[in-house]
Every structure is written in C-alpha cells, then in structure tokens.
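Handout for the seminar on molecular recognition.
Each group receives one record of this type.
Step one: identify the two inputs.
Step two: read the structure output and locate the region that could contact iron/sulfur cluster.
Step three: write two sentences on what you found, then compare them with the reference statements printed after the record.
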Amino acid sequence: MIRLNQTDYSKPQTKAKLHCANWVNGNCLGICFVKTNEDLEGYDVGHIIDKKYAGKPCVVETGDECPYFSEIVKKGIPEIKSIRGRK
Ligand code: SF4
C-alpha cells in the first residue's frame, strides 16, 4: 500500500506546527524575544513569556496571527516549493 503525504504545507496552521518553536501540541509556550539595553553600538536580546499567548491554543489554529508568527516564523521559512512543491 502506498501512503501519500496529505499535509498541506501552504496552510498557516501547518507552518506554525512545523516551524514555530513555541508550538507544542497545538498550544503556545509564549516565549518571545525582546530588545534590551539598546544603545549606539547595538542592543542585547532577551526573552520574556508573553502571558497573552502562553499556555493557550496557538492563535494561528483559529485563523489569527501573533507578532512572533508574522515577524519571525513566516520570514524564516525557507522557500523550497521549487524542490518539493511546498508553498
Ligand atoms: S501563537 Fe504564535 S508563537 Fe504561539 S505557537 Fe502559535 S504561532 Fe507560535
């Protein structure tokens, strides 16, 4: 029997599941990066737990987007659609 991969890689839910480090079984860890100690030479990066998302279902699952998904996760997904037909 041949099993075909039915995963729709173009769906935002699939992208969150496969690429977001905060996604755990459909729920969000809520960890996000923040700039700290910004000055002329640059800035340090720290992290916080965002209570708006932590421990709750991933908002992408409901058709919404969080800032981490739109600003970090989506921009970091490699363009490999020409290789495997993914979007
Ligand atoms: S809400 Fe955002 S940060 Fe949390 S799991 Fe979903 S995509 Fe990732």
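Reference statements: Residues 59 and 65 are 6 Å apart (CA to CA). The chain has three helices and four strands.
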